[in-house]
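Cross-check.
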Amino acid sequence: MAKTTYNISLKGYVGGSDFDRSTVDRELARHDGKQVNVLIDSLGGSLATGLSISAAFRNHGNVNVHFVGLNASAATIASLGAAHISIDTGAMYLVHKCSMAFFEWGSLNSDQFATLIADCEKIKADLDKLDQNVARLYAARCKRKPEDLLALMKAGGWLSPQEALDWGFVDEITDLAEDAAPRLTDVLASAMADAGMPIPDIPISEAERESAFGKFITALSSLFKNQSNNIPMPTENPTPKTYTEAEYNALNARLTEATALADSQKKTIEERDSRIAELEAKLAKTPAEPSKQVVEDSKPAGDPAPKNEVEAFVDTCKSARQLFNEV
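Predicted model, tokenized:
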């Protein structure tokens, strides 16, 4: 099979330099009246950009979108205006409810809390409207009820290519030789964690698997191993995600182990601090030995006087503590 030629490649953050509306507009204008092939590989980003690109694809008319890698959020919305959508057999697809960055730090009185609560209520109302609108767009593509798509967005979870096809998000599953299967790295996992996305059940690269972070991701991803396969088909009341007793016990064991280690380290630091304070107090109370005679120093003038045993121990403890804090 001949290698596919893509007129537009949209990757990375939706709204960034590699996934922006200006690039799409420029390439669509160059191919006015012609078929345009678009490659998408993105975890999402700006909803506004996704909606804008979707409209541009719809206005052009003859646009084919092909998904590879991990695709979520605004990246999936951007594809909705395409005439034909395909997904590689190794790719994955995720839809979820809209979110907005929120951060509040400080001390608030009751009036300020009332203002903050009012602002949060307004943000929630806006997000609810966005969710309803996105659900309608997905529903039009999938030829399903908006409430079914809203339930899927609420449940979240990665869809396999077959599940994406069953829902109607894509029209075709392909197995092209040039499409590499996605691999999980610490950078990718961190980005997904920051965005509140579940970790997909995909292979971890060998380099990452050997690292401490890679081993952590391996353990964590096992908890989501069958999550994408358990996404419910449209129902009025979707069942929330639950964990088995074995999964719960595994998480609890890790938490207990981490807590015990933290307590042990804290106790060690406290004991060292106490010992240092004790020796410093002892050193301060020790009177200087009286000088009985003048002894000519045979060492160079710039050399410091040798430290006694207590002073040397204190310095060693301080150095060890400083090294521990840096680590």
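Residues 258-283+309-327 form one domain. Confidence is low (pLDDT under 50) at residues 219-241. Passed to J.P. for a second look.
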